[in-house]
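Sample A.
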Amino acid sequence: MKTLLALQHLAFEDLGVLEPLFADYGYRVEYLDATTDDLTQVDPAAADLLVVLGGPVGAMDDHQYPFLCDELALIRRRLALGKPLLGICLGAQLIARALGSSVYAMPEKEIGFATLTLTRQGRRSPLAALEGLPVLHWHGDQFDIPPGGTRLAHTRTAINQAFAIGRQVLGLQFHLEADVGLMERWLVGHCAELASAGIDPCSLRRQAHKAVHALPAAGRQVIGDWLDQLEPATVRHTPLPRTTTAV
């Protein structure tokens, strides 16, 4: 069985609706808490897929949160190996920073559900399934596209929403993994940020209710299409029983 290592920063920001998909693709999932586990002891080549999840700190905040130094070092070692790497929100920002790109505060936070505008390359990428569909945004920073990366999407608020580096690396500023049926976890976990930004949680709750049917399926389509790129077409996945999921 293949292995997936997920670096987590908050308990409720996990693989969410994508975890059963990864099980279907034959991955055994293991989580590490990036804030407390010793990432210097992690072999960057050991996992078949490394996923760096989101979190409320900034990718440039290592002077305040020193664990980010070890996380960046692990990401850099993984990138040097050319092995599959997926970054979501903070994870995408850390990948961009590891590759030398700037990560910086936006004039305003982007929190809520909004559609993406796909670039020409984005429409030919796994992100094509998101055309016209509102996705969940929850960030106050954005990244520049790393050297050698392909810009895939943008919004009115953030010019860079997704990038790919070849077939092996995908960075997403938005949250396809979030189970919008469990949105209350996000509303409570980030209540101070919502209050500070003047965002009404009732509005987000209503938006989540509208997205609960279409968004999870589209997210699984995107990541499934990306996983299909990682292996030759002759050995693409055969879905396994959902009971194979392990955390």
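Sample B, a different protein:
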Amino acid sequence: MNVRLRLAGRRHLFEAKADWRSGTMTVEGRTAPIDEWEWEAPDVGALYGVALNDRWEWEGMAEAMTAPPYEQPPKGPVLYMKPANTINAHRRPVVLPPGVQRLRAAPAIGLVIGRTAARVQREQALDFVFGYTIVNDLSIPHEQRYRPAVKEQARDGFTPVGPWIVPKEETVPLSSLMARVYVNGQLVQCADLRRFRCPPEQWLAEVTEFMTLYPGDVLFFSWPADAPLVAAGDVVRIEMDGIGVLENRIVAEEGGGGA
């Protein structure tokens, strides 16, 4: 499949042919194992996550959402942002902050916007999407859902993205995508879009009703309810059929931090 990517030490974007199942990639006529390349994160803009879209998470919070001070579930999209400092790349380490021993590693599908999207209709929403990428939505475990958990979600390197962007015409339909998460080679989570409360195109329409998304922005959707907890030394591998593999090692900060 054709993909768009960035490589370490190169200033420009590459169009490449990748076969993640065989583990090879062809860039500028050279074919080599994917793991021989050194990666940068794809060229993306703002990253917005849609919270409470995982049906299992929503059902698990049903009682809390009807209790004070909220007294009712949210009626529209609940967004959070992963700022530029959080962006990380395929096969780059994720450093545990001092005093933190575990992270939640939630797989997410990222919709990369291809053209300016404002007040789009659900039926045309995917026309504004260039393609898809994998996001590892890392966070320090927390209970906060209604207010931004900035200290838990916006740490340096907490959002590996990639390894590339796949144009939507090059992959399977969005509704067919499935995420599998491996920790140290062991399958620990498997989820698909049937677990989403609303399909991504509906959220895309609702989000652009009140804010404009620009080319390169990413609206992503995760499965946090059963996401694994990981510690220093663990290798997290997220596979999505039709997109590829995103892999990162969790490491302790030198001189302190993780377990």
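Observation for Sample B: The mean pLDDT is 90.
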